[in-house]
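Co-fold these.
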Amino acid sequence: LKVRGAKVVVQDMVKHFETRRGLFKAVNGASVDMEPGTITALLGPSGSGKTTLLRLIAGLEEPTAGRVFFDGEDITGRSVPDRDLGFVFQGYALFKHMTVADNITFGPRMRKMGLDLEAKVEELLQLTELEGLGGRYPPQLSGGQKQRVAVARALACNPRLLLLDEPFGALDPVVRKSLRHGLRDIVRRVGVTTIIVTHDQEEAWDIADHVVIFNKGAIEQHGTPEEVAKEPMSPFVMNFVGDVS
Ligand code: ADP
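Predicted complex below.
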């Protein structure tokens, strides 16, 4: 499984929600470039607009203003071309009544992609180190195994963009660490452009090529983990850098 990762460009993205207490500015002018095959972490405190930006990129939300380009094509207000997008939702949203294998092949079956489904399952079980578990049901799996099924399912249509919303959220710290190294290896091997939403600084530093720091709907700073750690401009990062040194 090898793909040509997409180049994704977000320009001046704005999303306002109408609420009972007036207009809520969830994302307020965010611009960011994602290079093919790289991992970008959207990092910031809870409620800072990370998930909203992820959903805007996926086309699951209509932007108030701003543009999204997928390999140079303006796809604003539409979703990413169907098969090109893999999404790992918070909590994974696996189908409990389907086997692991059927969870994984759900996308290709729905889209009638005409793949050799058995071969696809074997390939993905191997990639995510779940060999032999294709016949199990999600409730029979550990948290880490469920997470890997969600990643395998998201990769089943050979997407060129992989979006993950707090993919390690519900797991204990030891599992989190080994899984994020696993995920990094998978992304490297597959070549898919990847965006991860997280509120965990250590995680962002460990996994990402590029870190985008969000606060109150705006990007406070972005760069490689080294660049950001060298000259942190957000109190959110300063605390973290102080903690590890
Ligand atoms: P994060 O992922 O950084 O925790 P979110 O993007 O989920 O932040 O949410 C940012 C803010 O936008 C939150 O305060 C949330 O309540 C608000 N929000 C998200 N979706 C909606 C919606 N559909 N209607 C109103 N407010 C929303």
